């Protein structure tokens, strides 16, 4: 029996970690993926026929003459201020100096990559039922679900011994007979993926060789990640076959898919359905992962609606997401019939177990000296340093490396493969210091981190203190060093009056004292580590 069930996707394995770069792409009717190196769907013959008809009506000689004159007029008003190379360099420089930003789909992917472990969430589950007559159960173990023996064996083999809160409530609903629709909201790392994957596998009838379960993700990488979870859970169920519907996967015309589960992106799935390689009417379970991202983005929303319209009215709907805006929730409730809505509130960060300090400096060089003095004096396991821009992160990493520190650096310009590699090395302790930009702070999960340095304090686009980022990134930076009763150290480095005002605003907002620390006083520094 193999490591996982059969995946008929040879090209996916070799390209699992694609490059997260920004390139210009052409968006045709069926966009295969959000990421730049995907291929477009083929042009339809109707499009070519339309062009042919248009050419018969147009006076092309007159059209060309008018167009040429228009171009000449425009060129006469154009001012050439710099060469193309200079412009490119300027754009690159601006990108490095600007705070990093990601699309919702990219942010979702990064959150899942960065968060290695599960989140301990003690908050209560909120359940809302449109149909008060529908039963509602809760379970405390996977054995209570009456799973197929080999499926239960796969769950336990993966080291999952007990259910998490979102699973306790969601799984009985997902596995109920008759099937019930579910809308679930829970932060990353709380077990959502395992819940819907288990439901997907449980609904498969292996005697029927056609797609019965369809799972959509906003990106190639997230689809592959879901597929990996499914493959591991189905380790002892080799009869369950799955297929990736992502870029690079092509199905010859006239082919009919025989795999039971399709996991992919909306564009590719819609493309395949148009070529009738599988029948959407036969899908009995539909899963929308990262539903808020899928519905909020116009292109994905249109594709998802087209897919939903072709599903059977008896198809079970499962919508999962970390967040739902009001408009998105209203839209989801409109298209999902009589859903049970399950919400697990986000675990709140706390600064109670954090010793916070402020170090005053005059410039970048003094900030650097302060950071290295503190790190070299305090007996710490590992440290994370947060910067505002890629340029600062790269500069700091280069300086610390030259001075003999084992440093890792991550920012948004890394490929997925590089990002995973850097984080894994840091978790293994190969590097003692991780330098990153603020945007990648949420969810970094490393138990050995005991000190966090804000080389640049978090601010919003107007330069004011971003207290929400300071607190919520605390789950992975300041707050994470103080979880489970451990005492952590947070160092805030300031080099201007503006930065000092940000620090004071944060202190006042949380009503938590941020103590002054002299980075030149080794005795004082030693005390903070005790």
From TrEMBL:
Major location (coarse): cytoplasm
Keywords, alphabetical: ATP-binding, Cytoplasm, Helicase, Hydrolase, Nucleotide-binding, Nucleus, RNA-binding
Keyword check for Oxidoreductase: no
EC number(s) from the headed UniProt entry: 3.6.4.13
Keyword match Electron transport: no
Catalytic activity reported: ATP + H2O = ADP + phosphate + H(+)
Subcellular location field: Cytoplasm; Nucleus
Transmembrane region(s): none
One GO MF term attached to the UniProt entry: ATP binding
Ranges where the Helicase ATP-binding domain occurs: 173-342
CDD domains given in the database record: SF2_C_DEAD
Domain Helicase C-terminal: start-end pairs: 370-525
Entry-linked InterPro entries: DEAD/DEAH_box_helicase_dom, Helicase_ATP-bd, Helicase_C-like, P-loop_NTPase
GO cellular component: cytoplasm; nucleus
BP terms from Gene Ontology: regulation of gene expression
PANTHER family with a match to the protein in the record: ATP-DEPENDENT RNA HELICASE DBP3
Protein's UniProt name: RNA helicase
Organism: Acanthoscelides obtectus (Bean weevil)
């Amino acid at each position: 029996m193999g490591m996982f069930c059969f995946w008929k996707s040879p090209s996916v394995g070799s390209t699992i970690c694609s490059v997260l770069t920004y390139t210009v792409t052409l968006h045709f009717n069926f966009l295969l993926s959000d990421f730049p190196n995907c291929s477009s769907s083929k042009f339809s013959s109707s499009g070519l026929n339309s062009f042919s008809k248009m050419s018969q009506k147009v006076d092309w000689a007159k059209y060309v003459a008018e167009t040429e004159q228009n171009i000449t007029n425009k060129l006469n008003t154009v001012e050439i201020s710099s060469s193309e190379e200079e412009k490119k360099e300027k754009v690159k420089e601006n990108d490095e100096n600007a705070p990093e930003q990601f699309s919702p789909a990219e942010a979702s992917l990064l959150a899942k990559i960065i968060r290695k472990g599960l989140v301990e969430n003690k908050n209560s589950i909120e359940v809302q039922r449109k149909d008060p007559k529908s039963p509602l159960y809760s379970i405390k173990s996977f054995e209570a679900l009456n799973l197929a023996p080999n499926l239960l064996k796969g769950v336990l083999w993966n080291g999952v011994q007990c259910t998490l809160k979102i699973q306790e409530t969601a799984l009985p609903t997902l596995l109920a007979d008759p099937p019930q629709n579910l809308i679930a909201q829970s932060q990353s790392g709380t077990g959502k993926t395992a819940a819907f994957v288990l439901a997907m596998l449980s609904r498969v009838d292996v005697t029927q060789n056609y797609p019965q379960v369809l799972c959509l993700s906003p990106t190639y990488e997230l689809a592959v990640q879901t597929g990996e979870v499914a493959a591991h859970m189905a380790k002892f169920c080799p009869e369950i076959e799955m297929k990736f519907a992502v870029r690079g996967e092509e199905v010859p015309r006239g082919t009919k898919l025989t795999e039971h589960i399709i996991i992919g992106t909306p564009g590719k799935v819609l493309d395949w359905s148009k070529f009738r390689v599988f029948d959407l009417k036969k899908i009995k379970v539909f899963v929308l992962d990262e539903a808020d991202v899928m519905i909020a983005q116009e292109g994905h929303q249109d594709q998802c609606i087209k897919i939903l319209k072709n599903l059977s009215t008896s198809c079970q709907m499962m919508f999962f997401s970390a967040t739902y805006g009001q408009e998105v929730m209203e839209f989801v409730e409109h298209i999902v019939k009589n859903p049970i809505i399950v919400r697990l509130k986000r675990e709140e960060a706390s600064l109670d177990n954090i010793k916070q300090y402020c170090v005053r400096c005059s410039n970048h060089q003094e900030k650097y000296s302060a950071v290295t003095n503190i790190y070299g004096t305090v007996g710490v396991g590992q440290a994370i340093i947060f910067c505002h821009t890629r340029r600062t992160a790269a500069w700091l990493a280069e300086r610390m490396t030259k001075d003999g520190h084992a440093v890792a650096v991550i920012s948004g310009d890394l490929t997925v493969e590089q990002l995973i590699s850097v984080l894994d090395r840091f978790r293994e302790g190969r590097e003692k210091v991780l330098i990153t930009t603020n945007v990648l702070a949420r969810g970094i999960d490393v138990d050995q981190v005991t000190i966090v340095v804000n080389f640049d304090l978090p601010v919003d686009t107007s330069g004011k203190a971003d207290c929400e980022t300071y607190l919520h990134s605390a789950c992975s930076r300041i707050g994470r060093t103080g979880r489970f009763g451990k005492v952590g150290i947070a160092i805030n480095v300031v080099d201007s009056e503006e930065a000092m005002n940000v620090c004071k605003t944060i202190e006042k907002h949380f009503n938590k004292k941020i103590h002054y620390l002299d980075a030149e006083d080794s005795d004082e520094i030693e005390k903070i580590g005790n």
